[in-house]
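User: For documentation purposes, I need each entry recorded in a consistent format: the amino acid sequence on its own, followed directly by the corresponding structure tokens. There are two entries in this batch. Please keep commentary to a minimum and don't merge the entries.

Assistant: Recorded as requested. Entry 1:
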Amino acid sequence: MLQSLVRPRIEQQTPLAVSLARDADEVREAQRLRYKVFAEEMGARVKSSETGIDSDMFDAHCEHLIVRDTTSGQVVGTYRILSPEAAQRLGGFYADEEFDLTRLNHLRGQTVEIGRSCVHMNYRTGGTIALLWSGILRYMHSHGYQYIIGCASVGMADGGQSAVSIYRRLERTSLCPVEYRAFPRCELPLDAYENNTAVARLPSLIKGYIHIGAQVCSAPAWDPDFNTADLLMMLSAARIDARYARHFLRA
């Protein structure tokens, strides 16, 4: 049933399709893509018992959204989705490890967490992002959930200059109300970047969040294993931009 709920209409000439992983083999395809992007491309220290696979304790409790090139059969994009019920069984969201979410506690029963997002380098286009978001929005709508949270990552290869530039930009335009603010457990020291003059472009995945109506809920948290600065993003169903929702759902 979930499979049909998240499969959008794909135009005949479009070689990409989105769906929820149907079995363990499809989950492993998503995990291989994650390893390729996170470990091989970004240099993350992936903690996994199996070479070439990115996995953790959350995977078994998540739905795994995948975008597949229907010509080659290759999985080229993925998100994992943790329902509020699964998060309760686990004792919390993945984001709880990086942020103090006390101010969001009253929303937990209505909140889906998305994460481990990645797209193959040859498919980082608006079309791939639109397909991922079409799957996420259909999942959210079909279950009646009201909020989405997720960590959006910015690479730290430049020492954090781009991450701070992106946060300062979003802080001016897309910061959530103070009552929904989360607090990093290992905060990037923003004061050390007072003279930062970098002007960084928004990564495609963060741009997707903002376009659809999401807000930033935190200052950047430093993830030493992935060497990224992570921003907690939150999207309320009430804030979803109707134009972009229609665009994503038509993808």
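Entry 2:
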Amino acid sequence: MSPADIRALEDRIDRIESQLAIQQLPIRYALAVDARDLDAWTGCFRPDVDMGRHGRGRRVLRAHIEPQLRGFHRSVHQICGHRIEFTGRDTATGAVYCRAEHEVGERWIVMAICYGDEYARVDGEWYFSRRREQHWYAADVTERPQTVDFMGWEGAGEPALPDAFPSWAPFWKETT
């Protein structure tokens, strides 16, 4: 093999190993949230994670998320699909579909979620740089999402999907 062939093979192996490592992040995140393992959960994010006006770092992230996690008792996050697109050797973006269930008092809230992710490799390890949750609906398991205007749990906020997909409005614009 020529040096160029060896380098191409090394690059392909690196890409495969990177994709496998990134694919583990959403399930590690889900398991950590459901187990309320905040160290494992924050460990999915890069050490200097940017929390905007709140500051930077995993301690800031933990302080922000812990009160939210105390807003429901049990939870189950089921990862349903994952798309990854590399934007550089050490960066990527992705979308992760998830069905999440939350015990909120006497209610069992079901959510259909799409996470918009940014990933970065830091010191040889892949982490979330950013994770943005958007959902279609949140409703008690006994309710149809339409009967609660897709907003059956105030803790979930207003659903952004499907309107947030760039192709959504143009598709329906053609409908008479």
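Summary note for entry 2:
The longest strand covers residues 107-122.
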